[in-house]
Amino acid sequence: xxxxxxxxxxxxxxxxxxxxxxxxxxxxxxxxxxxxxxxxxxxxxxxxxxxxxxxxxxxxxxxxxxxxxxxxxxxxxxxxxxxxxxxxxxxxxxxxxxxxxxxxxxxxxxxxxxxxxxxxxxxxxxxxxxxxxxxxxxxxxxxxxxxxxxxxxxxxxxxxxxxxxxxxxxxxxxxxxxxxxxxxxxxxxxxxxxxxxxxxxxxxxxxxxxxxxxxxxxxxxxxxxxxxxxxxxxxxxxxxxxxxxxxxxxxxxxxxxxxxxxxxxxxxxxxxxxxxxxxxxxxxxxxxxxxxxxxxxxxxxxxxxxxxxxxxxxxxxxxxxxxxxxxxxxxxxxxxxxxxxxxxxxxxxxxxxxxxxxxxxxxxxxxxxxxxxxxxxxxxxxxxxxxxxxxxxxxxxxxxxxxxxxxxxxxxxxxxxxxxxxxxxxxxxxxxxxxxxxxxxxxxxxxxxxxxxxxxxxxxxxxxxxxxxxxxxxxxxxxxxxxxxxxxxxxxxxxxxxxxxxxxxxxxxxxxxxxxxxxxxxxxxxxxxxxxxxxxxxxxxxxxxxxxxxxxxxxxxxxxxxxxxxxxxxxxxxxxxxxxxxxxxxxxxxxxxxxxxxxxxxxxxxxxxxxxxxxxxxxxxxxxxxxxxxxxxxxxxxxxxxxxxxxxxxxxxxxxxxxxxxxxxxxxxxxxxxxxxxxxxxxxxxxxxxxxxxxxxxxxxxxxxxxxxxxxxxxxxxxxxxxxxxxxxxxxxxxxxxxxxxxxxxxx
Amino acid sequence: xxxxxxxxxxxxxxxxxxxxxxxxxxxxxxxxxxxxxxxxxxxxxxxxxxxxxxxxxxxxxxxxxxxxxxxxxxxxxxxxxxxxxxxxxxxxxxxxxxxxxxxxxxxxxxxxxxxxxxxxxxxxxxxxxxxxxxxxxxxxxxxxxxxxxxxxxxxxxxxxxxxxxxxxxxxxxxxxxxxxxxxxxxxxxxxxxxxxxxxxxxxxxxxxxxxxxxxxxxxxxxxxxxxxxxxxxxxxxxxxxxxxxxxxxxxxxxxxxxxxxxxxxxxxxxxxxxxxxxxxxxxxxxxxxxxxxxxxxxxxxxxxxxxxxxxxxxxxxxxxxxxxxxxxxxxxxxxxxxxxxxxxxxxxxxxxxxxxxxxxxxxxxxxxxxxxxxxxxxxxxxxxxxxxxxxxxxxxxxxxxxxxxxxxxxxxxxxxxxxxxxxxxxxxxxxxxxxxxxxxxxxxxxxxxxxxxxxxxxxxxxxxxxxxxxxxxxxxxxxxxxxxxxxxxxxxxxxxxxxxxxxxxxxxxxxxxxxxxxxxxxxxxxxxxxxxxxxxxxxxxxxxxxxxxxxxxxxxxxxxxxxxxxxxxxxxxxxxxxxxxxxxxxxxxxxxxxxxxxxxxxxxxxxxxxxxxxxxxxxxxxxxxxxxxxxxxxxxxxxxxxxxxxxxxxxxxxxxxxxxxxxxxxxxxxxxxxxxxxxxxxxxxxxxxxxxxxxxxxxxxxxxxxxxxxxx
Lengths: 748, 712
Known about the structure:
A: 3-stranded antiparallel beta sheet, elongated, transmembrane (chain A), long-chain fatty acid transmembrane transporter activity (chain A)
């Protein structure tokens, strides 16, 4: 050890630092070097011992999606490559969601993303999610990242010095010194390379981890179950569109931007500080003061030369948005435009939007020329020139000072040549530092732009989270009763959640007023009324998606709603029937594929598994099944889940009436009470009550029993009466058939 | 003795060889330098040129089959890419005299100019460096400041050149974008031969493009930016490599340069060997991200259905799985990048850096024949110049290596833009690709789908045996026949999703006709009023006269007063004042209520006065008496109406009825509204009575049981 330190002593101070850096780097690399074979070994063991997953296992994992764990978490089975990886997912506890809601007050509508206190507040609110505690892995990575960033700057100083030394040896034709320098060069390469690589790696993994945290949190918030149902309400009540864009692209962009910005801010700042320190050592105090004066002057020149890029960019974004909205509008309303044959007109509208945009963009380019010129000139050349001046000051003025940083003893021997060599060394390393400084300065300038971008992304992310948080929970309408009861309920489109607080005038007028219905099991209700009067709105209130505007709603938990538009989940054929259950729930319930076949028979779809190639076939079912097949699949779900009540919203319109009738009868035999929304009068016969919504805008409703109440009279009279009526049954049926014919084919 | 002699001979030979070498050195230098330039150009060409192989031919075949949607098309820099690129280039640079070509020439000359300046700066740097050091040593402040001043002066054109380069590049990109947008938007919206209406067909009848608006705005912009940058990204480093190395060879001799090139190329080849397939990673990463995005948009699209079913937990697990796949892939890429980053930096920065130092050391430690022995000042000067050249050259070389990445990125955008162009061209020609429902495979349905119908222009509307088929092959009605004569209003009824709207789409020429004969007036003689009418961007006047523009209106000699009278028919004349005149522009979709929108659409109908109007639930939000007024006025104007409505109040305006039963059957007959209403009522009454039958039976049985019990 002592010999080692002695040898260290014998080295020049510069090489000493190098050797130390090398040792440190070896120390760091150690874990990697030792780990790598270890993990490789572990992998080998795993590969030889564990059975190789075949295609069946992957298929199985695809079908199962996840496994329930004992502690309430879920283990996802993720097929990746030809392996199945297990990833444990712990849902964010509701208490955490509730407690973090206070950090997310809604933004005012006029809020603009700028660098202000508001931005810091938003950022800290988001960061609380990304870094839940000081001891979490993310914080650890952050600390490690910072360490490597500082390390890199330290190493850069070392490289600059080494560079100067090599050049000195070169210029003074010192072959031995040159070779030694070259050796040191390679030695220094190891920690430098490692540091650089680690910085990149840590930055990316930090970004990925933040993204994961934020995504998980957002998923838990967004896909919250009743009474929040935020995924459904965010559009209508939250007034936020394109949530998929927010969750996928914006979270990723935010994480990237934040972790990049951190590196981009920390590195040039440490560079600026350390390089200035190391320069000031060779410049002396007056030089250092001048260096700072230089910083100040260039910064003010640049500030004066910078046009209002923020405002320009904002206008550009707005124009770009207008153009995009125009194109999007054409895509969305294609059918109407096509019917009006309005292509030419839309072309004019779009083209004028585009022209406005491109004119603005081109004008920005023009403004840019002068700015970029100034920036380039000031940072690249003016700084260098100032640097030359600064370096030269002590040499020009302070002739009394010794030359250069330090002179080796052998230098004295041959005068000016050696002085030049020394100065060259000093000069080269100083210059390298200066160039790095200019670079760092430029980076700090660019970091400002990054910061602006980050503030935009933060605002977007914050908007998403605060909107999700701002949705008040829906009133709880489930109760342990056996019946559905609506008492004096007004049904209307829910208002925007942030408008609710402002004024009551924005509350939408109710579509249906004062609705009172009470349904016991076995009392089937049919709701009818022309388009747009609010039939589906009633279903939404029954399902708990819309809060009733007044009155009381009570219902049992087991209500299944089959919507108008058949929804096919991404997954296998089996998943379609058991939806909304997952395969894990199906497996747990102990139900079999045989039962499923029976259900499919009831909806006349028994041919599907054979036609599509088995239960586990995965297809885009939305495109594969025809309209009628999709609707019957919806009914299959009712038969699978056997709820107490089923709300059928116009969900058999493309099914032939005989099949429709059989499905209704089957549902009744299963003990399911039906609430049907339909325009088809023929469906009335399967129900006991008929609710008609009037189409005159008053929101009135009429509830009638299907079939008149029995008349009280003497038993004998009643029997005769009934027998009379029953005798007529045949003629009624005949007449009905006639009427059907007449209504169908009226005579010419 | 003999050995020493032999040694002597060998030495002599060597000396002769060296002499011969030094005599011919200029020639050798020329050859070597020439070889080097040729080598750089050749490798660049090879790097960028098409790679023949199975890949490209397979892509070509796959296209023809039209079933490649399940396998993501591979995007590579290959022959297909160059083919596509050259096609797009012909659009963005239409001729050599176009502005784009001039900009491109400007760009190239600026590039050359910049490299020339850089060379000059490098040599100046070396000279001036020594001068500065010398002036410092000799304490000549004046000379020092003059030198600094000179340096700053040279910087002026250099930075000027830089900022102009970036300006021209940006202009080039926006010029490309304008050309492409013009071309694309025109064929997207303009009615040309083959019916046009690409904007409708591309998203409704064709599967290839999911989001055309994204492609028209985003992808074209990115493509243009990449295309403008790629030129500089490839041309500049190649130019730099050649020029810097040439200059370097002048200073240190071509031998060193050749040696350097060999070393650099060997290590670069090593690096390439060690590089993981990042292209594949990126493609996979894009497809995983796309699938996550797709799952999300599916979720928000079907939010209501999912909320009805309470399926959020299942959906969440599906989403989480998608996301976990993305993360897992990113992790793997990160691990790959970590090792690769270390190797790459070790080679590019440190190994090449040391090569550079060695090369610079050549003139110092070894005497080059023909190069005069330099003193210390000369050495310093030479070294600084060479060093700068080397740095620039290795930087340029690094950029050549990276430019492949840019190129593959450009290939990605090129693929998307050309997909858009191809699809639009195909749609224009009537070549459509859409996934069909499974039931389309049955013999009978397939026969219908193979067929092709006839469309004949005439004054009346007449369908003869026309099947109604949705674009995804769902056959709603096998064969439909009906006719509408001018003045005979037609009512169309039936359940949802049974082909009412489809009929209109065939009438409007939006959907292809699969069989039979369709007689119909030209599309300009139709106007459709949907339930939620379309309100374009623009002024209040534009809302009424759409799709005419103000100029069209004036050309037709129609006036604002006329418009006002049209509006007063639908009792909307107050809107003009309320909204601030005819020229008020706002987002009308939000400014008008549902009923007002429908009335505006009716006003539009009365303004245009077409022969036929299709009303798709067009009065659902309008009061009944208003509805009657509008129907009567339309009849007065001689507009024949085809109405879809559930409102019985509308029946009396129609003389014919087309009724679908929802299972592929239909009835077309005269409509006697009064009688039909009566029949409908009777039917409902009877149905109610029949419903009571089971209850009555039960009651009867019960009563009889009571009577029997009493009798006992």
